[in-house]
Specification:
- The protein has helices spanning 24-28, 46-60, 68-81, 126-129, 152-163, 207-218, 230-234, 266-281, and strands at 4-7, 10-13, 31-39, 42-43, 86-94, 111-118, 131-137, 168-173, 176-180, 184-188, 194-196, 223-225, 238-243, 247-254, 257-258.
- The chain starts with a strand and ends with a helix.
- Helix 6 packs across helix 8.
- With 284 residues, the chain is of the alpha+beta class.
- Helix content is 29%, strand content 29%.
């Protein structure tokens, strides 16, 4: 790879981009991130991701060195510099370098990084087959609504799911599904009701989640934002995840049990189709 990345106001070849070993993002995971999809060289749902970025920064008392308008300009420029037609833009802001101390530094100088990742987000083969998930305990910290870079447990969950022969993990707390390792979790009941966990500090406030719920309501699908149990998930008519990386992706197997007939459900596929159609049309 030979990408051009953005680091603290400079455009650099990826091999030339370096961050201090004293950066608090490295020492304490004192940092947040966002991921924006790119299709046809345009940004998907940028306003939502920008708003969530501002919220995460506010929750941790981080300050972005760029204004929202300047940050949008950097997103567009990094697409141009890397000739990115389809894929993802990762943004990360840390509190910056400081002598190692649990207390926040008095006058931090944030570290801001953006880089691209080319990826075929539209033609995802798993959209045709669905994915399998393993159920694992949710052992993350209690502020999952903040999109921090402390992703060790989600990484461990993905590895354990792979060890069990599954594609991903759904995390469980007190018998109820919270979310996937890096996505929002949803089921569709035999009555055609879309059920997903309500927003709280226990889950990330998914941008794709929000859009898909709006789309579902638009086409007349009943939506219930409430916790759903492991048993409900296993006996659901359909199941799926949503994220900026995967859009809407069917789940066809949970802990070895087929969901419905074991094929991607028709409503799930309809929501994926609508999401892609409408969000590409409104991309900037």
């Amino acid at each position: 790879m030979n990408r051009t990345v953005y680091l603290n106001g400079a455009w650099l070849a990826e091999a030339d981009a370096h961050v201090s070993i004293f950066d608090r993002g490295f020492l304490f995971a004192d940092a947040i991130y966002e991921v924006t999809g790119v299709v046809n060289g345009k940004l998907l749902e940028y306003e939502g991701h920008s708003a969530r970025l501002q919220r995460s920064m506010g929750e941790l008392g981080l300050v972005c060195p760029l204004s929202p308008e300047e940050l949008l300009g950097v997103h567009r420029e990094i697409v141009h510099r890397n000739a990115l037609s389809e894929g993802l833009i990762y943004l990360q802001i840390s509190r910056g370098p400081a002598d190692r101390d649990f207390a926040f530094p008095a006058n931090p100088v944030p570290t801001l990084v953006l880089f691209t990742q080319a990826k075929a987000v539209l033609d995802n083969p798993k959209a045709r087959t669905g994915i399998s998930v393993a159920l694992l305990p949710d052992l993350r910290w209690a502020r999952c609504d903040i999109k921090t870079v402390q992703l060790l447990y989600p990484s461990m969950a993905k590895m354990e799911a792979a060890r069990q022969g599954a594609d991903d993990a759904w995390l469980v707390e007190d018998g109820f599904v919270t979310e996937a390792s890096s996505a929002s979790a949803h089921i569709i009941t035999s009555d055609g009701v879309l059920v997903t966990r309500p927003l709280s500090q226990a889950i990330l406030h998914g941008i794709t989640r929000h859009s898909v719920l709006d789309l579902a309501t638009t086409i007349g699908v009943a939506v219930e934002e409430r916790p759903f149990s492991v048993e409900e998930a296993k006996t659901a008519a359909e199941a799926f995840i949503t994220s900026a990386t995967n859009f809407v992706l069917p789940v066809t197997q949970i802990d070895g049990q087929l969901i419905g007939d074991g094929q991607p459900g028709p409503l799930t596929l309809r929501l994926r189709e609508l999401y892609i159609e409408r969000k590409i049309a409104s991309a900037i």
